[in-house]
Amino acid sequence: MRKCSLSAINSIFEEIAKNTMLFLPVDNKDGKAEYKKWQEGFLLSEKLNTVKSPKEFLFPQTENLMEFKTSGKNIEIIDTRTAKEDFVVFGVRACDAKAFDILDKVFLTEPRDSYYASCREHGTIITLACNKPSETCFCSAFGIDPANPMGDVSAWKTENEMFFEANTEKGEKFIELIKNLTEKTDNKEVKKQKEKISNIMKKLPLANLSTEKFGGGKTKELFDAPEWAELSSTCLGCGTCTFVCPTCQCYDIKDFNTGKGVIRFRCWDSCMYSNFTLMAHGNNRNSQKERFRQRFMHKLVYFPENNDGTFGCVGCGRCLSRCPISMNIVKVMKKLGGKTND
Ligand code: SF4
Ligand code: SF4
Question: Is the CB of 234 under 6 A from ligand 1?
Answer without folding.
Answer: no
